[in-house]
């Protein structure tokens, strides 16, 4: 470590550039993984907040809550416990005369069931009358506030915002929580339809109706429109970035090692064991990667703090740990490639 | 009776290349270095002086013959043991590039301590050695801030710092003026005489002749004792 540290201290510009390169790579990987996780989270925030284990849908709805509809004759055969809740979903455009339109997802609830009871508000109260809704905090970015009356799609009915809730997004759109009768109005459905589906906290819940099927939450989420494709795109971007980083870091460390061969030859001539030189090279790589990573984390934290609230960025410690270990391993592998060169250093070259 | 031989080389041949490109650089060399003596090996460029030095120091093995350092047969021990022998018994003074560029003069010595896990000289002893070589003021300088002669003197000091039994020097005075040649020559001779070390110098520099106990000449791979 002594030689490694002394060299970095003496060659500040050269090693500063390498640390800068690792900083930029790690910054890019952190930001990309933050955006990927943030976006993925916005697909499922509301579902996650419900603490659901399974979703009961019409088996011909292709695992889509929006496409599923449960009739009264079906729900009459079901036995709902405290762990089940009806949900009606409909894509809407919310509008108010003085504010921008917001594309949102309407979620109709029976407020006496567990989702309605569990819902945590950041301000206001839960609906107590007809035509009252609770909306996601995302509406605040378009300056909506408590007491505003909004309309949905081309319907003439107005709805009053009586509460705000946090982290309530589905399909990257903010959620508007209302009641199931409003959902029927938006879908232009008669009273014979009860909901889109049933959300259950019981993974083994059996609907007892042939036409209905129980899906695990993971299977349901993976079928959300664009969710898997988006996650796969980000995963591949990050994976390719890691591979390219490995090549770039390895090339830099290889060139650095080649430049040091004459010094290593002198040290070998004096009897300094190869293992000292090898451990020096690996230690130096670790110092550089640690330095770059630490600065990358700092820059990422600063960026996340300065980004507008609308940017979907979120950090997940296990993902960050995997990315960090990945970059660290990349650096070690990069440092191990020129080890063969060090072991082959010929001390005679500095004399003969 | 104690064996005073530090290096013994018997029937040493060294050949490079194969078939038609085969060149024999050293032919049937017989050489012995003893404690308390300074040996000078002279010869024109390409005569095989440096090859002789690398074989004597265990940096490469001869094609034929036997090398013994302090009674240890170099050709019969593994690389790790040869490294340890060089680190503990031999001090090399090389022509160039022999200082670590990112360590100050002081750190060059401390690095030796770190590698060997022991402090070889007190600060006063180190300063006295640097004083002898006229480089005390350079203690906090980096090699890039030194002239060729200063670099060479620091390299000499570093080779002597761990108090090796044998010093192998390759053109140690190449970059020095006559005054400094005398200083280095006297220093090497004193090391041999006062500290009972074995000094072998490979050089073109005839100004060092006056300090040597034995002078050998290598010509076309053959070694003979010169007058």
TrEMBL record, chain A:
Name the InterPro entries for this protein. Answer: ABC-4/HrtB_transporter, ABC3_permease_C
Q: Where in the cell is it found?
A: Cell membrane
Q: Does the keyword Cell membrane apply?
A: yes
Q: Where are the transmembrane segments?
A: 15-39, 234-256, 285-307, 319-343
Q: Where is the ABC3 transporter permease C-terminal domain?
A: 236-347
Any one GO CC term of this protein is: plasma membrane
Keywords of this protein's UniProt record, alphabetized? Cell membrane, Membrane, Transmembrane, Transmembrane helix, Transport
May I ask which residue range the UniProt record assigns to the signal sequence?
none
Q: Which residues form a coiled coil?
A: none
UniProt KW Ribonucleoprotein keyword? no
Task: Name one matching Pfam family.
Answer: FtsX
Membrane-protein topology: Multi-pass membrane protein
UniProt family annotation: Belongs to the ABC-4 integral membrane protein family. HrtB subfamily.
Function noted in UniProt: Part of the ABC transporter complex hrt involved in hemin import. Responsible for the translocation of the substrate across the membrane.
Complexes and interactors: The complex is composed of two ATP-binding proteins (HrtA), two transmembrane proteins (HrtB) and a solute-binding protein.
* Protein name in UniProt: Putative hemin transport system permease protein HrtB
- What organism is the protein native to? Schleiferilactobacillus perolens DSM 12744
């Amino acid at each position: 470590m002594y030689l490694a540290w002394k060299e970095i201290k003496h060659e500040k510009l050269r090693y500063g550039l390498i640390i800068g390169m690792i900083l930029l790579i790690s910054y890019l990987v952190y930001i990309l993984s933050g955006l990927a996780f943030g976006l993925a989270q916005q697909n499922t925030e509301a579902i996650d907040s419900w603490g659901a284990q399974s979703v009961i849908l019409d088996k011909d709805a292709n695992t889509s809550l929006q496409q599923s509809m449960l009739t009264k004759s079906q729900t009459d055969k079901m036995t709902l416990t405290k762990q089940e809740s009806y949900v009606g979903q409909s894509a809407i455009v919310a509008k108010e005369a003085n504010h921008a339109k917001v594309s949102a997802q309407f979620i109709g609830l029976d407020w006496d069931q567990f989702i309605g009871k569990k819902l945590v508000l950041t301000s206001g109260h839960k609906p107590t009358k007809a035509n009252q809704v609770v909306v996601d905090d995302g509406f605040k970015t378009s300056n909506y506030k408590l007491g505003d009356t909004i309309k949905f799609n081309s319907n003439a009915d107005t709805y009053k915002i009586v509460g705000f809730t946090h982290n309530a997004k589905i399909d990257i759109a903010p959620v508007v929580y209302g009641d199931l009768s409003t959902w029927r109005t938006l879908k232009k459905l008669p009273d014979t339809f009860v909901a889109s589906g049933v959300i259950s906290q019981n993974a083994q819940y059996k609907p007892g109706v042939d036409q209905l099927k129980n899906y695990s939450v993971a299977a349901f989420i993976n079928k959300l429109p664009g969710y898997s494709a988006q996650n796969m795109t980000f995963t591949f971007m990050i994976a390719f970035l890691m591979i390219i980083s490995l090549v770039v870091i390895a090339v830099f460390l290889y060139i650095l090692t080649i430049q040091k061969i004459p010094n290593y030859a002198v040290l070998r001539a004096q009897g300094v064991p190869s293992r000292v030189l090898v451990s020096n090279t690996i230690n130096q790589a670790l110092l550089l990667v640690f330095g770059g990573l630490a600065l990358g984390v700092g820059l990422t934290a600063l960026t996340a703090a300065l980004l507008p609230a609308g940017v979907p960025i979120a950090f997940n410690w296990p993902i960050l740990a995997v990315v960090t270990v990945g970059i660290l391993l990349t650096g070690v592998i990069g440092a191990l490639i020129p080890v063969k060169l060090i072991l082959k250093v010929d001390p005679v070259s500095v004399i003969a | 009776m104690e064996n005073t031989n530090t290096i013994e080389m018997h029937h040493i041949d060294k050949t490079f290349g194969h078939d038609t490109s085969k060149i024999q650089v050293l032919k049937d060399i017989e050489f012995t270095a003893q404690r308390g003596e300074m040996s000078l090996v002279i010869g024109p460029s390409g005569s095989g002086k440096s090859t002789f030095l690398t074989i004597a120091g265990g940096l490469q093995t001869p094609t034929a013959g036997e090398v013994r350092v302090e009674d240890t047969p170099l050709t019969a021990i593994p690389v790790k043991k040869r490294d340890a022998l060089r680190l503990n018994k031999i001090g090399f003074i090389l022509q160039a590039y022999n200082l670590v560029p990112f360590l100050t003069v002081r750190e060059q010595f401390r690095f030796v301590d770190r590698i060997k896990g022991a402090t070889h000289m007190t600060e006063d002893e180190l300063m006295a050695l640097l004083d002898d070589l006229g480089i005390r003021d350079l203690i906090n300088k980096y090699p890039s801030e030194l002239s060729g002669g200063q670099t060479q003197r620091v390299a000499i000091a570093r080779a002597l710092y761990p108090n090796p039994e044998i010093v192998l020097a390759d053109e140690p005075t190449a970059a020095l003026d006559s005054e400094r040649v005398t200083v280095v020559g006297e220093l090497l001779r004193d090391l041999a005489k006062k500290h009972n070390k074995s000094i072998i110098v490979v050089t073109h520099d005839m100004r060092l002749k006056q300090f040597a106990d034995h002078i050998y000449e290598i010509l076309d791979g053959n070694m003979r004792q010169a007058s």
